[in-house]
Amino acid sequence: MARKDGKAENQHYVPKMLLRNFAFATKGKEEQVYVFDKHNEGDFPTAISNIAAERGFYEADFGDGLVSLETSLSVLEDKTRAAFAKLIEHEDLNALSDEDRAWIAIFVASQRIRVRHFRETVKAMNEQLLEKLRRMGHDPVEVEGVPVLTDDEELKRFAIQFLVESMKEFSQHLTTKAWLLMRTTPERPFWISDSPVTMHNSKDFGPYGNIGLAVRGIQIHLPLSSTLTLALWCPFLVE
After folding, report:
1. Residues 232/213, Cβ–Cβ less than 8 Å
2. Which of 36, 59, 100, 192 could form a disulfide bond with 68, CB atoms 3.0-4.6 angstroms apart?
3. Which residues lie across from 11 on neighbouring strands?
4. Phi then psi for 199, rounded to 5 degrees?
5. Do 190 and 228 touch, CB atoms closer than 8 A?
6. In three state form, how does the secondary structure of the chain look?
7. CA distances, 84 to each of 44, 79, 96, 229 (Å)
8. For 26-83, how does the pLDDT look when each residue is reduced to its tens digit (9 = 90+)?
9. What pLDDT shows up at residue 108?
């Protein structure tokens, strides 16, 4: 939902409900997290309101006025918060109901897509595709089915639309995975990032690639706290 004064909201692409599980209390009003900047290899503490967020990140004009996903994502976070709290408290997947698992699957699917990293990846791939078409003598604008993302607003609209259209299919893939909990100690903690859903695959499928929700051997992870990570693995790995 847009602000009443017309200015864009500061919208988190990593929800504060996750960041709080990695935060520390201060004398101020809000918890803080330590941030590591990979570009300059520096670190600093900051309030969770200031990190993994951008103004109007989920707001775009599709021609019929401003559309925002902020309210829908807030509802999703509210539905998932209780399920994550159960896992953190009990450290047992049996604490989850079927409804809890469904909401978590939707949340993980959305979290994979809703981040800045996803948009940067789409932008880079789109630029490579357009350049390839130009070298082949084609005008990308005239090629059916090829998005031409020439500016940040077009990229934002594409990302928002993709998020909405892919949620059902992606979350269904996640429900078929083997769900595991991974624990560590405070001395060797898990970290969270600005793209917290990670995917890894030890199998090599050559030029076809090995990263995808439905790819055999895929391992998907989401850190829930500094000592607990939810893992969604290809069932063949567990077998």
Report:
1. no
2. 59
3. 54
4. -130, 135
5. yes
6. CCCCCCCCCEEECCCHHHHHHHCECCCCCCCEEEEEECCCCEEEEEEHHHCCEEECCCEEECCCCEEECHHHHHHHHHHHHHHHHHHHHHCCHHHCCHHHHHHHHHHHHHHHHCCHHHHHHHHHHHHHHHHHHHHCCCCHHHCCCCCCCCCHHHHHHHHHHHHHHHHHHHHHHHHCCEEEEEECCCCCCCCCCCCCCEEEECCCCHHHCCCCCCCCCEEEEEEEECCEEEEEECHHHHC
7. 27, 10, 9, 11
8. 887 789 999 998 888 889 999 999 999 999 999 999 888 888 999 999 999 999 999 9
9. 97
Q: How wide is the angle at C-alpha 19 spanned by C-alphas 222 and 162, nearest 5°?
A: 60
AA letter at 83: A
Return the number of other C-beta atoms located less than 10 Å from residue 221's C-beta. 18
| Residue 93 and residue 179 in contact, taking contact as beta carbons nearer than 8 Å | yes
Residue holding tokens 């630029």? 127
pLDDT at 7: 53
- How many C-beta neighbours within 10 Å does residue 17 have? 16
- The pLDDT-based confidence of 144 (bands split at 50, 70, 90) is confident
Angstrom distances, CA of residue 109 to CA of 37, 106, 141, 175, 185: 26, 5, 31, 10, 27
| CA-to-CA separations, 101 to 63, 92, 171, 174, 212, in angstroms, rounded | 36, 13, 10, 10, 20
- What per-residue confidence (pLDDT) applies to 86? 96
**What are the tokens at 114?**
């809703």
